[in-house]
């Protein structure tokens, strides 16, 4: 069924216990059937009830043993499923944080969160179901079948023959149903999405004056969806119909056959009753497998999805070679004398795609303000990701204060940096805790100072709870400019020497941008700043401008130098001017 | 409006179908039971060795009939019940749509976070289960209960009462206890799961901060601790589920034993024939099994609560709509065709007596063809002003008039007069052509070609294999942000109104895409009144008036040339947006 299954830690003892319990269970099923049959046939023969009491108790005992075993089996497999699910989740979470934000962005936040929360639950259900079902299916029917053969060969043959027929029909119908669904998958998807699509587009419909009329199309499409669904269900339900039909037919055939042989006098009533009681038990495991089929399939897929993330190749932590060993002990530093050299850095996300960064080289020294500009898709964000240690270049070298490294993915380097994206994320906690994020031990006074430096004092005064006001998801909503200021306060408080900013003001209104710019420039002092943006007004304030074009460095220099050169930078400025006029 | 109103009316509407489902459901259980009953009877009868095989002919036929019919009836029952439930879903969807439609322009401001519309649509899907997994199985079990006791009562009333007690444990006591035990736990588990969801989303969105701060281990350990707590509660629920199952099986075991003793006694007393002993005992298993699912069905009830209360909350949000138009379509079209003179005079608005003024004593004069830009921070009152002009809100004092008609009185005829292009116009999951045609359902194909040409997408669309029949969804990735705005712009052009509101349509586009789009917009909108809410000063030179809003009032206004001359602040802002100015520097 699932090759991975045997690979999970601790499954072997669980499997052994479940197999053992199932064996005992099959014995108890046979015993309760036999004893019940014996009691009934004795009563039928006119024996007194009193003589039967001991057997009745034995029947009850066997019956209970069977269900107590069920109980234990479920408990054992649940504990195993729970532990395995939890360990898988732990691995997955660790991996997610190792892979970092870039992976999260490509995989989609919603997908990942759903996978971690619902995927693990589904996977747990899968384990919980698959172990007893698999074992049950491979033991119970066959033990019962052997016993039935010992009692009555004809009934045994009927049961034996109906099992493969039943399974073949189920599979055939299942395949037919899937084909049927796949054939109309497109219409189906459109129809089922229509409603949520309509709701999301309600505002637009309203502006277009179509919202009233669209109400009719909701019910029309819903009805079409219903007919399409019913067409599919008619086929899909056939699979469980086949299961039902052949089970019942087989039991009925066994019963009729028993009846005929009893009439002929070739058999005792007790044998007939035993076989009749066992016949439904013979089919029970396969029916349960059928009933849980979809749940197990879901869980199996979720498990595979998680596994594929866990097996995702890792970005290697940079090795600080040679003399850097001592440096590491002392902690990596960035001072006014520090030097970082990039040589031939390339990033290629896919083998046959154009590289996002192509042979980028740069010299960076001390506390500079470095602007990174270029058209969209020129590689600005990729360069920031490389500099921030989020992304491993596919080729190229770095030299940090004389020691060579192959990437900046290193804890010590990250400890030096802060990162401000276009829309900084605010965690749902208090304003103070958000500011304190990089330095959790900071005192209230320090937080206050950081807030003031980032220009948040006015906001803090206006909040009813001041610094303790809850912000982020579920808390008080802040404007885009205020969010940026919180991120700035965070960076200021951390006192880390390197700041990375990716398009920090592009989405803000111009008045906010203007005020924010003044605050930012004051915070940039005595720091190494990388600012990627397409807002060119920042550039005169930069010490160095790196102009990117299709992943390559087109020009490097100050604003004045580049203007004078009338190259890529100049044409970028003039092209924006041409735009509207 | 209470939450039950989302469930009850449909029972009445579909009473016939519901009845059929209950009958079929009961028959399914009945045939399964009767198969065992007649089988038991058959082999007992056969064991008496009747001389003529015809003596067992009837039971043989019955056994075969029941054997075959159970599967068939069950199949039909599932189809009928799904069909009925899908009909209900269709009705619920229409209803939800009709509730949301009047509030369309306020939904995004009422529910700031998350995809509330997606959630509501899921809620309705989820309510299917109320019928399929709770109502139908429970009612069918109750019908079976009554039937079983009546049937048994015809033999022996006293014993029927004993069995009634056993079954009562399965259909009432266990479900009730189950509900008591799991209700709070389910709620708690769900709540904590919600928090986990929140926490994890938070962490994934803010992952770069966690990674840079060097604190992921800290997050992971607190997260694991929370997960363990939820797992503990869920484990308790599961554990009760196992106990419930075991207790139920004990009850079944006891009822089988009671049946054996009773049947033996009855036979000894000559009340029933020997052939019925096996029949009675064997039928106990399938019958009792029919009652086991009731607990599970009842246990689900608390899980529907959230969906129901969300829907109830939405229904209660129905506002007295101001949109009943006093104009006929023809009047609105006439108004539009003559050119619109938009006058806002001393208009003020606030959402309630307590809240601050969103728009305060604002006066604007916008004759046909004038182009104004509105700039302001978030919360400055721009959106409220637009809603006043769109007629979605009526001013608290002052007037907003279109050629002498109060804007809010034009109501749902407004789309003939004003069209809107906002930041994220919705493009529907249908073809490009259909999306554009939403601007004017009667538009001819040439009209569509014309507007597409105007927005400069003709080459792109005609180069696609399916051309205008290309599905938006399939090419969702292929159409860039700028192209999507152009499709929406084509739709607005097709709508062809004298007044166009542009509500930050270029946010998120890079400068060169933005500039090209702005140029296209200005080119195609000649002669139309343009009200352009913008976050920066692109194309300021082309505007007849630029208005800066602050706290619901106008802080600064004038033409570009005037402002450049008299306002230092304006000059600073203009410089930010116009890098070419630095070249001259």
From TrEMBL, chain A:
Domain of life, per lineage: Bacteria
Matching InterPro entries: AAA+_ATPase (IPR003593), ABC1_TM_dom (IPR011527), ABC1_TM_sf (IPR036640), ABC_transporter-like_ATP-bd (IPR003439), ABC_transptr_CydD (IPR014216), P-loop_NTPase (IPR027417), Type_1_exporter (IPR039421)
Segments traversing the membrane: 12-36, 56-72, 130-150, 156-177, 235-260, 266-284
Coiled-coil residues: none
Domain (ABC transporter) ranges: 340-575
Keyword vocabulary terms for this entry: ATP-binding, Membrane, Nucleotide-binding, Transmembrane, Transmembrane helix
GO cellular component terms listed in the entry, alphabetical order: plasma membrane
First-listed, main subcellular location of the protein, grouped into a coarse class: membrane
Gene Ontology molecular function terms on file: ABC-type transporter activity; ATP binding; ATP hydrolysis activity; ATPase-coupled lipid transmembrane transporter activity
Record SUPFAM superfamilies: ABC transporter transmembrane region, P-loop containing nucleoside triphosphate hydrolases
Compartments where located: Cell membrane
Membrane topology annotation: Multi-pass membrane protein
Listed Pfam families: ABC_membrane, ABC_tran
Domain ABC transmembrane type-1: 16-298
GO biological process, one term: cysteine transport
Name of protein: Transport ATP-binding protein CydC
Organism whose genome encodes this protein: Paenibacillus pini JCM 16418
UniProtKB/TrEMBL annotation, chain B:
Subcellular location: Cell membrane
Superkingdom field: Bacteria
Record keywords, A-Z: ATP-binding, Cell membrane, Membrane, Nucleotide-binding, Transmembrane, Transmembrane helix, Transport
Membrane topology label: Multi-pass membrane protein
Main location: membrane
GO biological process: cell redox homeostasis; glutathione transmembrane transport
Membrane-spanning ranges: 18-42, 54-73, 130-153, 159-181, 246-265, 271-291
Organism (species): Paenibacillus pini JCM 16418
Stored PROSITE patterns: ABC_TM1F (PS50929), ABC_TRANSPORTER_1 (PS00211), ABC_TRANSPORTER_2 (PS50893)
Gene Ontology molecular function, alphabetical: ABC-type oligopeptide transporter activity; ATP binding; ATP hydrolysis activity
Protein name, as recorded: Transport ATP-binding protein CydD
GO cellular component, one term: plasma membrane
Domain ABC transmembrane type-1, residue spans: 19-303
InterPro entries documented for this protein: AAA+_ATPase, ABC1_TM_dom, ABC1_TM_sf, ABC_CydC/D, ABC_transporter-like_ATP-bd, ABC_transporter-like_CS, P-loop_NTPase, Type_1_exporter
Domain called ABC transporter: residue spans: 342-576
Record has Lyase as a keyword: no
């Amino acid at each position: 069924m699932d090759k991975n299954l045997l690979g999970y830690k601790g499954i072997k003892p669980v499997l052994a216990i479940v197999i053992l319990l199932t064996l005992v269970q099959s014995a108890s099923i046979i015993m309760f059937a036999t004893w019940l049959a014996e009691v009934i046939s004795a009563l039928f023969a006119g024996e007194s009830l009193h003589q039967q009491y001991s057997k009745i108790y034995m029947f009850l005992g066997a019956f209970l043993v069977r269900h107590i075993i069920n109980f234990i089996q479920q408990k054992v497999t649940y504990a195993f499923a729970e532990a395995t699910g939890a360990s898988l989740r732990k691995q997955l979470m660790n991996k997610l944080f190792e892979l970092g934000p870039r992976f999260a962005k490509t995989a989609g936040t919603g997908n990942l969160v759903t996978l971690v929360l619902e995927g693990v639950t589904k996977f747990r259900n899968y384990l919980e179901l698959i172990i007893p079902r698999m074992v049950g299916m491979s033991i119970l029917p066959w033990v019962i079948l052997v016993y039935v053969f010992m009692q009555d060969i004809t009934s045994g043959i009927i049961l034996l023959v109906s099992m493969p027929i039943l399974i073949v029909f189920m599979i055939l119908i299942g395949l037919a149903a899937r084909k049927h669904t796949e054939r109309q998958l497109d219409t189906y998807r459109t129809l089922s999405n229509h409603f949520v699509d309509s709701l999301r587009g309600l505002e637009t419909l309203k502006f277009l004056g179509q919202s009233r009329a669209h109400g009719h199309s909701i019910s029309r499409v819903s009805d079409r969806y219903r007919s399409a669904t019913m067409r599919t269900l008619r086929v899909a339900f056939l699979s469980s119909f086949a299961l039902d039909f052949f089970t019942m037919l087989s039991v009925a055939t066994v019963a009729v056959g028993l009846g005929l042989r009893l009439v002929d006098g070739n058999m005792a009533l007790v044998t007939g009753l035993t076989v009749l009681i066992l016949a439904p038990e013979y089919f029970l495991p396969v029916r349960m497998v059928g009933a849980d089929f979809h749940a197990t399939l879901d869980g199996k897929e979720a498990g595979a999805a998680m596994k594929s993330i866990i097996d995702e190749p890792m970005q290697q932590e940079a090795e600080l070679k040679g003399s850097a060993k001592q440096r590491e002990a002392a902690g990596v530093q960035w001072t006014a004398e520090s030097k970082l050299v990039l040589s031939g850095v390339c990033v290629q996300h896919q083998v046959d795609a154009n590289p996002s960064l192509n042979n980028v080289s740069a010299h960076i020294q001390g506390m500079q303000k470095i602007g990174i500009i270029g058209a969209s898709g020129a590689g600005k964000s990729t360069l920031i990701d490389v500099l921030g240690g989020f992304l491993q270049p596919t080729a190229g070298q770095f030299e940090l204060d004389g020691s060579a490294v192959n990437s900046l993915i290193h804890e010590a380097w990250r400890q030096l940096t802060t990162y401000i994206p276009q829309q900084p994320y605010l965690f749902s906690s208090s304003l103070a805790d958000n500011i304190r994020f990089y330095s959790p031990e900071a005192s209230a006074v320090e937080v206050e100072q950081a807030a003031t430096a980032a220009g948040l004092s006015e906001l803090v005064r206006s909040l009813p709870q001041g610094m303790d006001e809850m912000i982020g998801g579920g808390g008080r909503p802040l404007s885009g400019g205020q969010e940026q200021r919180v991120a700035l306060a965070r960076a200021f408080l951390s006192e880390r020497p390197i700041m990375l900013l990716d398009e920090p003001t592009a989405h803000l209104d111009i008045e906010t941008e203007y005020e924010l710019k003044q605050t930012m420039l004051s915070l940039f002092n005595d720091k190494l700043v990388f600012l990627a943006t397409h807002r060119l007004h920042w550039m005169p304030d930069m010490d160095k401008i790196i102009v990117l074009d299709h992943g390559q460095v087109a020009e490097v220099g100050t604003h004045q130098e580049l203007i004078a050169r009338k190259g890529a930078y100049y044409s970028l400025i003039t092209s924006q001017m041409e735009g509207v006029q | 409006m209470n939450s039950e109103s989302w469930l009850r009316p449909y029972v009445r509407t579909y009473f016939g179908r519901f009845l059929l489902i209950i009958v079929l459901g009961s028959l399914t259980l009945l045939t399964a039971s009767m198969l065992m009953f007649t089988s038991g009877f058959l082999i007992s009868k056969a064991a008496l060795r009747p001389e003529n095989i015809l003596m067992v002919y009837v039971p043989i036929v019955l056994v075969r009939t029941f054997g075959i019919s159970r599967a068939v009836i069950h199949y039909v029952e599932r189809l009928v019940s799904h069909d009925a439930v899908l009909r209900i879903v269709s009705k619920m969807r229409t209803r939800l749509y009709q509730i949301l439609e009047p509030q369309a322009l306020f939904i995004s401001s009422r529910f700031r976070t998350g995809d509330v519309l997606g959630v509501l649509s899921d809620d309705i899907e989820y309510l299917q289960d109320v019928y399929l997994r709770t109502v139908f199985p429970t009612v069918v079990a109750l019908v079976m209960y009554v039937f079983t006791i009546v049937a048994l009562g015809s033999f022996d009333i006293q014993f029927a009462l004993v069995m009634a007690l056993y079954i009562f444990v399965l259909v009432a006591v266990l479900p009730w206890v189950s509900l008591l035990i799991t209700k709070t736990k389910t709620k708690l588990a769900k709540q904590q799961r919600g928090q986990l969801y929140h926490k994890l989303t938070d962490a994934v969105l803010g992952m770069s901060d966690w990674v840079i701060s060097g604190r992921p281990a800290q997050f992971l350990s607190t997260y694991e601790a929370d997960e363990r707590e939820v797992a503990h509660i869920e484990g308790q629920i599961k554990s009760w589920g196992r106990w419930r199952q075991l207790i139920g099986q004990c009850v079944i075991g006891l009822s089988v034993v009671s049946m054996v003793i009773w049947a033996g006694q009855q036979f000894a007393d000559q009340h029933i024939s020997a052939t019925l002993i096996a029949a009675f005992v064997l039928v106990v298993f399938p019958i009792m099994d029919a009652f086991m699912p009731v607990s599970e069905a009842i246990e689900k009830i608390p899980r529907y609560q959230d969906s129901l209360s969300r829907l109830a909350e939405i229904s209660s949000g129905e506002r007295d709509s101001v949109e009943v138009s006093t104009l006929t379509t023809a009047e609105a079209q006439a108004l539009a065709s003559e050119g619109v003179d938009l006058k806002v005079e001393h208009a003020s608005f606030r959402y309630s007596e307590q809240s601050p003024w969103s728009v305060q004593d604002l006066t604007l004069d916008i004759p046909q063809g004038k182009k104004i830009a509105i700039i302001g921070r978030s919360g400055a009152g721009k959106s409220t002003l637009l809603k006043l002009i769109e007629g979605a809100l009526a001013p608290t004092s002052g007037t907003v008039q279109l050629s002498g008609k109060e804007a809010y009185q034009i109501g749902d005829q407004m789309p003939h007069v004003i069209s809107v292009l906002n930041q994220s116009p919705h493009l529907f999951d249908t073809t490009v052509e259909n999306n554009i045609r939403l601007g004017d359902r009667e538009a001819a194909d040439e009209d569509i070609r014309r507007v597409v040409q105007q927005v400069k997408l003709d080459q792109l669309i005609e180069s696609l294999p399916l051309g205008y029949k290309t599905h938006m969804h399939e090419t969702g990735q292929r159409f860039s942000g700028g192209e999507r705005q152009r499709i929406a712009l084509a739709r607005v052009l097709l709508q062809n109104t004298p007044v166009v509101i542009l509500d930050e349509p270029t946010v998120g586009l890079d400068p060169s895409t933005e500039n090209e789009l702005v140029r296209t917009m200005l080119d195609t909108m000649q002669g139309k009144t343009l009200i352009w809410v913008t976050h920066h000063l692109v194309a300021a030179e082309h505007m007849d008036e630029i208005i800066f809003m602050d706290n619901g009032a106008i802080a600064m206004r004038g033409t570009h040339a005037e402002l450049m001359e008299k306002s230092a602040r304006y000059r600073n802002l203009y410089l930010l947006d116009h890098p070419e100015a630095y070249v001259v520097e």
